[in-house]
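Give me structure tokens for this 202-residue protein.
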Amino acid sequence: MIYCPRCRHGNPDGAKFCEQCGCTLQYGNLTGQYTNSSANYYGQSIQNTTHNKSKRGYGVIAAIAFVVIAVILVLSIGAPKNSHQEMKSKSESEILTETLTTISIGDLLQAYSDNEVNADNLYTGKTLKISGIVDSVSKDVFDHTYVKVITGEPYEIWGAQCYIKSSEMEDAAELKPGDTITVVGLCEGYSLNVVFKDCEIY
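Here you go.
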């Protein structure tokens, strides 16, 4: 059946003119085919255009997301360190000097003179910071270097015998009797002198 392009009347196949209005059916049919083809063409074009716009939209979103991530990374790298990071960045010596017990050489020797047992309870096994006067720089029978620190009082016999770390040997080599010195080390109790090991010179 052929439909008239003008009045949409249904005509038998092969008819050349519309039975209703007399319109030429072959021309109308061709025109209808052309119109349908054009509609299909334009419909596909619109669909393709919409698809392309969608693609461009996704591309813009991806670019914005990339820029945001990059900015966050830059800010996080350049952000100031928190207190925990600052503590980690400090050397062990700096942390040690902030947490150790400070005592004068005079008070330490007096404590051991008054009551060695009580002094051991207070100081043995602890890292102490002491200051005093260099009496001598020597080595024991095992070739271990130590600095004897005293108060500087007349007729002083005993003091703190501070065994120096190997990393401190250059500083120890420059010491002379009478120099003022500050030492940080682990107290090991009394043995003719108050003995310290692993000492650092400040």
